[in-house]
Amino acid sequence: MGNLSPKLYDIAMKPFERSRFYQIRKSIAGNARGTVLEIGSGTGINFPFYRQADSVAAIEPDEAMRKRSLQRAAEAKVPIRTYAAKAEALPFGDDVFDSVVATLVFCTIPEPEKALREIRRCAKNGAKLYFFEHVRMNQKPIGFLQDAMTPLWQKVAGGCHLNRDTLALIRKSGLNVLEVKPMYDGLFLAITCINEK
């Protein structure tokens, strides 16, 4: 939601975060172990849920979002360091991370294929990857509506693609998809993968 201020973004998301999103984030971040990479950490909404991580490297290219996340990082149960970086050019070496978390971010990444290549490079062999994303729905009328709305929506919502098929992109990247949990009639997907090199 790049055109919303970080504070307004948190307010706009609050009704969703109070419902199933809370449990989804708790499960995803709570399962991330070892050295963790978070892609597009935004205002740090996942930070309170990290429990089993040794440390978290959180990338967020939007300066205002990143600044708003610093208080949550300071209050987290595990060490969290934020980086002003994009997913397509991660400032880390090869085979660094045990887990990767990405929630509601792949819709906005300009070059998702490149981002997935970078994530695979930085993740260790056998690393677990946890995605939670909204996607283009298979139901034709809704899918067509998402297609029609996306050009305008991108302009008002920070480049968000309502119709991006993130699951297909993940499969094409070479990640081994272990589990896909559809929610809200398939509008949202929780996707668990393993990085096998």
UniProtKB/TrEMBL annotation:
A matching Pfam family: Methyltransf_11
UniProt cross-references to Gene3D superfamilies, sorted A to Z: Vaccinia Virus protein VP39 (3.40.50.150)
Domain Methyltransferase type: start-end pairs: 37-131
Keywords: Methyltransferase, Transferase, Ubiquinone
GO molecular function annotations of the record: S-adenosylmethionine-dependent methyltransferase activity
Superkingdom of origin: Bacteria
GO BP field: methylation
UniProt-listed PANTHER family: METHYLTRANSFERASE LIKE 7A, METHYLTRANSFERASE LIKE 7B
Protein name: Ubiquinone/menaquinone biosynthesis C-methylase UbiE
UniProt source species: Planococcus koreensis
UniProt lineage: Bacteria, Bacillati, Bacillota, Bacilli, Bacillales
